[in-house]
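TL;DR need structure tokens for one chain.
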Amino acid sequence: MKFYFSIFFSLIINISLANDSLVSFFDFSDKDLSLETQTLDGEWLFSWNADYENADYTSIIKIPGYWNQDKKLSAFGQACYKTTIKIPKTEERLALKIQNIHNSYELWINGKLVHTHGKPSLNPKEQIANWSPFLIPLDLDTSQFEITFVVANYGHRNGGFASSIYLGNYAKMLKDRDFFMSIDALIIGGLFVLGLFLFSMYLMWRHDSSLLYFLGFSMAFGLWTSFRDEKVFFSIWNSFDWELALRIEYGSLLISISFFVVFISKLFPKQNIKLVQKIVLYLNTVFLLIVVLFPPTIFTYVAISNIIILLSLVIYVIFVFYKANTSHEFNNQFTTISLSLLILLIALKLSHF
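>> reply
TL;DR here they are.
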């Protein structure tokens, strides 16, 4: 009896020591945060199905990443992430840049709640989603601090961190954010202005219907871009409904693809492969109906199909474009340069998708 008791007691001690040995620590004490923005990518302490008060950190998880990458965990639920950060002594104000968390969270620093985004909760009915990017200024009076995220997701197919967390100088990060937002705004505004210009051209020369399809593409792609990366749309309407925003993002991409495929077929009718056009349009119609009619727990899986379609579409457009330029029927250098720049822009935007 004593033998079994000693084995049981040893197991309890070993498990306790194993849990105590879990460490998550980021040491930036030798970094100049006024010049270098650091990522908090790496291993964090993790507690599943918990809130801040009762979290029991018994495992490690990597950020960025989703907790349901562990097949034992559901995508829907709440989890806590914790780490300790050491920084150099500085009088400059620091900040955290949160880009994309699925899909609500609380930020705690040294036991104090400093920011709430949406409303995380263990109860799905009480949770409120919000995934707009946010730059959180930090008021720190110490060179070492503990940071905890309480993250809840009951809508997206993945729960957790879709992108990196950044730590750096607040003024510099604010300036960088404004710069990248202005770039996105310039692209979006340019697409809308180009679309309106082409529409005015169509009103004058009604025989060229390709202009209408490019108008549809530029408007839809510009709308999709406003919900990506820096998410310019949320700078105008930060509290916009999460589910509706997600439907607009997915739907506008599908619509822009459809318009672009038809635009290419109108521009290069002899080089276009009608079977490819029909397949893309039929699939996009089905996916769009799924986005409109089904809940996000289902329609967010459409993104997986979108990636495959987009990669195939880029290859197909380059193929059609190449055939058109090598033929003697098409020899417009202005159109060639314009479409090449457009394809490059699309490829750059989709590389972050």
